[in-house]
Amino acid sequence: MAGDNNYSLGPVPQSARKGVISLTMVMLGLTFFSASMWTGGKLGTGLTYDDFLLAVLIGNLILGIYTSFLGYIGSSTGLSTHLLARFSFGSKGSWLPSLLLGGTQVGWFGVGVAMFAIPVHKAMGIDTNILIVVAGLLMTVTVYFGIAALMILSAIAVPAIALLGGYSVIEAISSVGGMDGLKAIQPKDPIEFSTALALVVGSFISAGTLTADFVRFGKKPKAAVFITMVAFFIGNSLMFIFGAAGGAATGQADISEVMIAQGLLLPAIIVLGLNIWTTNDNALYASGLGFSNVTGIPSKYLSMINGIIGTLCALWLYNNFVGWLTFLSAAIPPIGGIIIADFLKNRHRYKDFANAEFNTVNWAAIIGVGVGVAAGHFLPGVVPINAVLGGAISYLILNPLLNRDAQTVKANA
Questions:
Q1: Residue 121 C-alpha from the chain's centroid
Q2: Phi, psi of 18 (to 5 degrees)
Q3: Which of 286, 310, 253 is nearest to 33 (CA)?
Q4: Ordered structural domains, the chain, with CATH
Q5: Which ranges of 78-189 would DSSP assign to H, the alpha helix?
Q6: Which residues contact residue 377 at a Cβ distance below 8 angstroms, ignoring those fewer than 6 apart?
Q7: How far apart are CA 393 and CA 377, in angstroms?
Q8: 18 has which bridge partners?
Q9: Tell me: the pLDDT tens digits for 8-62?
Q10: In 3D, which of 313, 260, 400, 269 has the Cα closest to residue 132?
Q11: Quick one: which of 82, 134, 229, 410 has the most CB atoms within 10 Å?
């Protein structure tokens, strides 16, 4: 643990905990992301004004509640998502969520780098490969400094995105006759409300499962709940509103593209860069923690390696891997559900990580992930919610059945 300022292999001590404002900025930096704006643009053209607001608020409230559970657990224990998974999945069983979470975050990092380079190339004519290398390396270098760098970057990025993006959206709404004109726009491609709700929840439930990686630095669990609710209920809702307003007014969901259409080229590049930089650094930071759980190597070195891989593969990932990443992400919500279920059932075990005893592999959790994925795909309702509940409920049923012998030994000890 010496020199591991990311505390990738143990709990964050109270002396290293951070304040509410700093961590709120970090989490807002995570949720301020172009993909949420794109989904907002899709909902804005598929729902009426009232249905859009209802879907966004209900969906992000659900996201906020889910991530608040994980944030509370992270702050209570000081443990990352991957170390928390050892309690439910086992010491080596936790490699499954670590590889799944870590691998998808590296993939999304590469996609994010390309999402910056391609529109900037179109706007300014700079070679795409040069933009990818420069942007990827800058993002990779900053993550080396851990949570401190994320706090500084987010403190700059979040206000800039909110102010510049907010100004652009206000201008865009004015161009279509203000709020009355916006409300009068009828859906071009109507979508079902349940589908819209699934899109909102699904937009960030995968990254939201990693909430503990960041708010484990919180001083108090109740503050961690506040931080995550602000980030997902307010921050993610704001991105959806940006996307819907921009899409309705200009046909472009990404606020940076709206700004380019408005002639605000430099502010657009700043917003796009900061938007992706904060989310990408959070993804890279979380990926390092995941692979650290598998290898035992401090996460900052692994994050750097992951950043180089993601940068080199950025265009390939962007062109070929987005569908596969989306598929992999469907397996992530049950992991969060299982972690929450185990903490609520066996909270006493989490008080002393250093002396905790783990199964090598807990098959109840492994099977639970499979059940959660199946519940998401085959049961009616909102896919991500079904996946979380399916994983949690099946784990609570299977765990005492599959680990009966171990529990009997402990009871007789």
A1: 27
A2: -115, 170
A3: 253
A4: 18-319 (1.10.4160.10)
A5: 81-89, 95-124, 128-143, 146-175, 178-184
A6: 330, 383
A7: 16
A8: 218
A9: 999 999 999 999 999 999 999 988 887 788 888 888 888 888 899 999 999 999 9
A10: 313
A11: 82
Element (H, E) at 261: helix 255-261
- Token pair recorded at residue 390: 């399916």
Residues, the chain: 413
Among 119-123, 171-175, 276-280, 336-340, the minimum mean pLDDT is found in 171-175
The CA-based angle 405-351-367, given to 5 degrees, is 45
- The pLDDT, as a whole number, for residue 406 is 56
Nearest to 232 by CA among 36, 98, 366: 36
DSSP state of 16: G
Burial class (CB in 10 A: 0-12, 13-18, 19+), 121: middle
Quick one: DSSP state of residue 235?
A: I
Q: Which amino acid does the sequence have at 151?
A: M
For 346-370, what is each residue's pLDDT tens digit? 999 999 999 999 999 999 999 999 9
Instruction: Give all strands (DSSP E) within 191-283, no chain letters.
Output: none
Q: What is the pTM of this model?
A: 0.90
In the beta sheet, which residues pair with residue 218? 18
Nearest-angstrom CA–CA distance, 135 and 121: 12
